[in-house]
Amino acid sequence: MKLLIGGYTKKKSTGIYELPLTLAENGLEMQMGPAKEVIKVGGPTYFVQDGKLIFTINNAGAKGGISSFELVNGKYQEKDSYLTPGSSPAYIGINQKKKLLYTANYHTAVLAVFSFDDEGKLTFLDSVTHTADSLGPCPEQADGPHPHFFDQTPQGNLVSCDLGNDCVDFYSFKNNKLHHLAKYQNEPGFGSRHIVYSPDGNYFYVVGELSSKINLVKFDETNWQFKSIATYSTIPDDYSDHNGAAAIKISHDGKFIYTSNRGHDTITVFAVNDDHTLQLRQRISTFGEFPRDFNWDRDEKYVVATNQNSDNATLYTRDAENGCLTPVQKNIFVPEGTRVLFSE
To answer: Would you name any one GO CC term (predicted)?
Structure first.
């Protein structure tokens, strides 16, 4: 098993790094080995994988976009790029079956769809640009819409989370064209960032970066009806310093939700009750500063969080019964990490 970690390339980092994950000497626990650069690329703050292909955000100076790399004889080779003048996207999602990629550009407010082939060739299909329909009151929202997520829904539509507009927008994608279907509006200043769904597809949990909250919403994707059920803080009530909630994950069995907190520097664990409401189970340190992303292996037994500002990663084991995390290895050097992926 191995990890791929990428992030900003403003200081020490030069691209995407690979870390081996092997049994420790005691034969009981896993441990991460040293990070080794495997893809040289600018600002791979998010990337996805399809077999031997990696599709990553690429900040190429005056241009930004996405690039594809293929693993050939143990080394990654660049296959294609789609770059345009201006900033790079913040998020890239993938539909491996349909061979589609979805990007959200935080700075330009553009959502885009691409196709790819088995060789990693990229083809632009369509895009839409968010407008300032419902800008929130926070300083981070004053300059316009900021979509931070664009990916699939349970029924195969597409969804974006817009931090600037405090909203979640839904789209269809038919005949290579995007069409707006519906909008769910979060509270002013929520800062909608990422979203996950209950296994039955009838509820979603959207995390707000600016509010450090999770909003539970009952969701009818056929008739586009929404009902806000509850909102939960990802940080303690008495925490007054700056925090930005970031990643959100839901376990495959739908029993636990996890979020990262940049500022409080923790992962918050919630148990999901039978009625889909949440119960706080744990807040655990990431043992570093500014944890943007974390992820788990296929069996959800191991979790790795990466700390962007302190250039380190932490390995945990996850208890499937109570959802809690236990740190087993700390202070693994990884520069400017913002994306964690257990490699296939």
So the answer is: cytosol
Residues paired with residue 112 on neighbouring β-strands, in sequence order: 103, 127
Tokens of 237: 């009530």
Q: How far apart are CA 261 and CA 263, in angstroms?
A: 6
CA distance 249 to 178: 26
Domain ranges of the chain: 1-44+234-260+271-344
Calpha distance 161→153 (Å, rounded) = 12
**36-62 pLDDT, tens per residue?**
999 999 999 999 999 999 999 999 999
| Contact yes or no for 86/63 (Cβ under 8 A) | yes
Q: What's the pLDDT score for residue 22?
A: 86
Count CB neighbours of 52 within 10 A.
Answer: 13
> What is the sign, positive or negative, of the torsion defined by CA atoms of 66, 111, 102, 337?
positive
Question: CATH: 3.90.1580.10, 3.40.50.1970, 2.60.200.20, 2.130.10.10. Which one for 1-44+234-260+271-344?
Answer: 2.130.10.10
